[in-house]
């Protein structure tokens, strides 16, 4: 039995359906990311779990108990808001202590727990500061401490890192994940940053236009996307549209223009029009004669640890990205052969209306 | 870049503000200085103002019980009006702020609209309502709630009601401004931590809008203490406040020096109260709100 269960959640604002039949099961201690583009209903879903929005349909269970009608203040859920929402008129200590005061925890124990939690987020020395005297990353950690100190059954994080700059964000990702492992709180993270979702979570739930499109482990979701939307939203991908022209011992033959490619028949369709997708890092550059087809390097970008090539091909512009292995790279304007390992070609359902 | 800065310093800032400064001096400081000087002159019922200098006028005001009552009444009234304005205006601003458009804009207009109407006109309106045969008394008697007309006009209650009406928009604006800085997520954070709606109001919202309430109080207090039109119309001859007393000395007794002394004392009292109040607040909120 899963610990947190969303059952057919729907949220309508007037005629507009912000969240459309979302069902999700989260195990105790699991870290799940809700990932999707802006406006896809992530925050609304989170607000329903937190009790700030009432679902139009569906139910929410925590540990088997139906909490759909329970007030936000009675749910015992910890939340970290995008804006941190620290109480500006209270010191760090008072901020963290607030939830314990509401629970009437005796003063001595309260002090102890507040300081323990502040130490957990490495802010033990900052207890007497006011929020405006802290950096963004530190405020973020106070917000996390404030949510964790009440030992919530479920921790909700709404884009907690989006206000931080790139370097601190990476550090915080690692730290946040570490803290979550330590305390073992069931956690849902909302983000529109795919790398954040992939790097931090046990499972990723990809949302689009109010619906859950795929729930999978990060590696699975990235390597075996079920729809073109997921394949383009999780990282970049090169896509061709084609038609299945034959099938032989588990392999599909797909005709794309003049060419025919072989691909593993995965979870996708096995006949009719399909999408083929290859990740940029799986698209290999070879000598012109050795590729499946040829193209010309249009632009080459150096990103330190890897090179990115934009290649003009008969199928439109393609992206390839390769590790900087210290080997002389292909120059702009050069003709190259393009290929991939058969198992790296994914067959997906063709684009649905509104998808991607 | 450096050139631009150099050019900018060619016209020093105080030169740029000179026109405004001149106007300010001519229209505000000069009359005030003259009033100040006038307050030291003496007055004779037959010969008028004499150009001598003494503290006699101040001593008269400070020693006369008659003036004590008037000063106490004025500042007492200012205190009461400020309190009522805070109690009405702060929740009003909070509720307004939570309304959805178009109601929000409509109600905001309704709250602030009266500022566009002259105080005199509005006060005359209150006079009509308050009178023995005014709308309020007619209604109360019609409903059988009272047998005799309630005395509202020429009472401090009436003056306080009208002043609250005149001044509550200032409180609303001031609290409104600080509500704009309040992150609504802090309220949700409070709720999620187990606080009731009421506790969230008391411990999260009120402390955050307190600076707005306090600065609104300053405005309302200062304006009430020096209010003239409303107490003059609704308080009449019997219910004098400092401003109307000064006016009477000027125009009825023609004792300008005494009127000037009263005016200066009012100004001084107002300034002292407001600056010390401000200092206390600043100390209290400097840490959290800088
Ligand atoms: N109170 C509301 N009234 C009407 N529409 C709303 C309301 N709240 C959200 N919506 C709409 O619901 C949709 C989903 O909103 P939501 O805030 O959940 O998106 P999101 O996935 O969190 O996006 P973002 O990444 O930009 O935060 C949006 O199109 C939004 O306009
Ligand atoms: Mg959001």
Main attributes of the structure:
heterodimer; A: 356 residues; alpha+beta; Rossmann fold; OB fold (Dihydrolipoamide Acetyltransferase, E2P); 3 domains; 6-stranded mixed β-sheet; 20 strands; 36% strand; B: 290 residues; mainly alpha; MetI-like fold; 76% helix; binds adenosine-5'-triphosphate; binds magnesium ion
Task: Kindly describe this structure.
With 356 residues, chain A is α+β, with helices and mostly antiparallel strands. Chain A contains 8 helices and 20 strands. Chain A has 3 domains: 4-228, P-loop containing nucleotide triphosphate hydrolases (Rossmann fold); 237-277 and 343-356, OB fold (Dihydrolipoamide Acetyltransferase, E2P), CATH 2.40.50; 284-339, Beta Barrel (OB fold (Dihydrolipoamide Acetyltransferase, E2P)), CATH 2.40.50. In chain A, the strands form 4 sheets. A 6-stranded mixed sheet of chain A has the order 6-7-8-3-9-10, with helices on both faces. Chain A has a 5-stranded antiparallel sheet with strand order 13-12-11-14-20. In chain A, helix 3 packs across helix 4 (136-148). Chain B has a two-stranded antiparallel sheet with strand order 1-2. Chain B has a single domain (55-289), classed as MetI-like (MetI-like fold, Orthogonal Bundle), CATH 1.10.3720. Helix content of chain B is 76%, strand content 2%. The mean pLDDT of chain B is 88. Chain B is built from 14 helices and 2 strands; from the N terminus they run H-H-H-E-E-H-H-H-H-H-H-H-H-H-H-H. In chain B, a hairpin with a 3-residue loop joins strand 1 (42-44) and strand 2 (48-50). Chain B is mainly alpha-helical and 290 residues long. In chain B, helix 4 (56-63) packs across helix 14, helix 7 packs parallel to helix 12 (229-235) and helix 10 (184-192) packs antiparallel against helix 11 (197-225). The structure holds adenosine-5'-triphosphate and magnesium ion. Residues 13, 16, 18, 36, 38-44, 192 of chain A line the site of adenosine-5'-triphosphate (ATP).
């Amino acid at each position: 039995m899963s610990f947190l269960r969303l059952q057919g959640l729907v949220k309508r604002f007037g005629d507009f359906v912000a969240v459309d039949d979302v069902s999700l099961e989260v195990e105790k201690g699991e870290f799940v990311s809700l990932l999707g583009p802006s406006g896809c209903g992530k925050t609304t879903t989170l607000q329903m779990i937190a009790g700030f929005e009432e679902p139009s349909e569906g139910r929410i269970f925590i540990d088997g108990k139906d909490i759909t009608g329970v007030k936000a203040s009675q749910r015992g859920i910890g939340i970290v808001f995008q804006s941190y929402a620290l109480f500006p008129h209270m010191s760090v200590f008072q901020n963290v202590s607030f939830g314990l005061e509401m629970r009437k925890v005796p003063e001595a124990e309260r002090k102890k727990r507040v300081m323990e939690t502040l130490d957990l987020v490495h802010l033990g020395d900052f207890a007497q500061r006011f929020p405006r005297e802290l950096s963004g990353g530190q405020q973020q950690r106070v917000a996390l401490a404030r949510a964790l100190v009440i030992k919530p059954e479920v921790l909700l994080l709404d884009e907690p890192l989006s206000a931080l700059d790139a370097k601190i964000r990476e550090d915080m990702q690692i730290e946040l994940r570490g803290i979550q492992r330590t305390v073992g709180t069931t956690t849902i993270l909302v983000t529109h940053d795919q790398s954040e979702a992939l790097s931090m979570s046990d499972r990723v739930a990809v949302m689009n236009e109010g619906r859950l499109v795929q729930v999978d482990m990060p590696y699975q979701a990235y390597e075996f996307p079920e729809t073109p939307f997921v394949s383009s939203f999780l990282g970049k991908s090169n896509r061709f549209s084609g038609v299945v022209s034959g099938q032989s011992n588990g392999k599909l033959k797909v005709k794309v223009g003049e060419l025919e490619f072989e691909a593993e028949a995965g979870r996708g369709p096995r006949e009719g029009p399909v999408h083929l997708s290859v990740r940029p890092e799986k698209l290999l550059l070879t000598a012109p004669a050795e590729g499946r087809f040829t193209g010309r390097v249009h632009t080459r970008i150096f990103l330190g640890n890897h090179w990115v090539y934009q290649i003009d091909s008969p199928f439109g512009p393609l992206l390839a990205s390769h590790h900087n292995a210290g080997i002389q790279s292909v120059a702009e304007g050069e003709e190259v052969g393009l290929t991939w390992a058969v198992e790296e070609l994914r067959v997906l359902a063709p684009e649905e209306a509104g998808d991607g | 870049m450096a050139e631009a800065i150099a050019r900018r310093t060619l016209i020093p800032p105080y030169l740029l503000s000179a026109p405004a400064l001149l106007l300010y001096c001519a229209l505000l400081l000069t009359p005030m200085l003259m009033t100040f000087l006038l307050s030291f002159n003496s007055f004779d019922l037959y010969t008028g103002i004499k150009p001598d200098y003494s503290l006699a006028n101040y001593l008269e005001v400070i020693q006369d019980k008659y003036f004590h009552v008037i000063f106490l009444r004025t500042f007492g009234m200012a205190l009461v009006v400020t309190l009522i304005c805070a109690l009405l205006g702060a929740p009003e601003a909070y509720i307004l702020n939570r309304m959805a458009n178009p109601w929000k804009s409509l109600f905001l207009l309704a709250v602030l609209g009266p500022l566009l109407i002259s105080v005199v006109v509005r006060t005359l309106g209150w006079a009509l309502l308050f009178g023995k045969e005014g709308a309020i008394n007619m209604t109360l008697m019609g409903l059988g709630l009272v047998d005799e007309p309630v005395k509202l006009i020429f009472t401090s209650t009436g003056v306080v009601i009208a002043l609250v009406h005149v001044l509550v928009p200032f409180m609303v604006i001031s609290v409104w401004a600080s509500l704009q800085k309040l992150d609504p997520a802090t309220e949700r954070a409070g709720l999620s931590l187990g606080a009731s709606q009421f506790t969230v109001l008391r411990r999260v919202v009120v402390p955050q809008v307190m600076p707005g309430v306090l600065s609104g109080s300053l405005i309302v207090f200062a304006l009430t203490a020096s209010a003239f039109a409303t107490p003059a119309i609704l308080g009449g001859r019997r219910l004098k406040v400092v401003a109307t007393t000064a006016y009477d000395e000027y125009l009825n007794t023609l004792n300008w020096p005494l009127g000037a002394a009263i005016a200066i004392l009012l100004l001084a009292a107002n300034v002292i109260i407001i600056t010390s109040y401000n200092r206390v607040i600043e100390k209290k909120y400097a840490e959290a709100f800088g």
